[in-house]
Amino acid sequence: RSGHTRRVAQALAGRLEADLEESRTRRPYAGTCGVLRCALEAALGRAPAIRHAAHDPSRYRLLLIGTPVWVWSLPGPVRAWVQGHPAADVRLAFICTQGGSGAERVFAQLQAATGRAPEATLGVTEAQLDGELDPVLDRFVARLATAEAERPPPGSRAAARAR
Predict the structure, then answer these.
(1) CB count in 10 Å sphere of residue 16
(2) Which secondary-structure segment (H or E) carries 120?
């Protein structure tokens, strides 16, 4: 709704040379009723109908799931996207934009929804969006690169035990 998550996702997609996909509901969240619907869906853990995704997440090695915090919860459209796109063998990382708090709770909800722990998380506050965002994003990209370097090769005994 504010564009904060989109801004962070676009900046990361540029750094990682990644494709970008935005989860959109079939019914827009316009006006006061839309704001109330957003809040209720998030607070009640509902997943609204969303538009068809253009990209198949199973075709990627790394999937960054970005989300804002709505009512200290995972937004309904993000919940719907995760439920509709199981990512069994894809590396995961979570990104969350927040006014000042709520990212840890949303990360826990994302982990529960995906059934897997992320390799890295990034919580971005509104103050960071208004200040020095580049160093925060650069550190996150470096963590992703480190996690990739430490990952066992596919088919190795270590990889088989991890599954």
Answers:
(1) 15
(2) strand 120-125
What type of residue sits at position 15?
Answer: R
Structure pTM?
Answer: 0.82
Q: How many CA atoms lie within 13 A of 32 on its CB side?
A: 0
Rounded to the nearest angstrom, the gap between the alpha carbon of residue 54 and the centroid of all alpha carbons in its chain is 17
Residue 91: which H helix or E strand, with range? strand 91-98
Contacts of 105 (CB under 8 A, 6+ apart): 69, 72, 73
SS3 state at 105: helix
Give mean pLDDT in consecutive 10-residue pieces for the chain, a chain of 163 residues. 88 93 75 73 75 83 91 88 82 92 93 93 92 92 88 53 38
- Alpha-carbon distances, residue 44 vs 115, 149, 161 (angstroms): 19, 39, 36
Terminal Cα distance for the chain, rounded: 37
For residue 105, the one-letter residue type is R
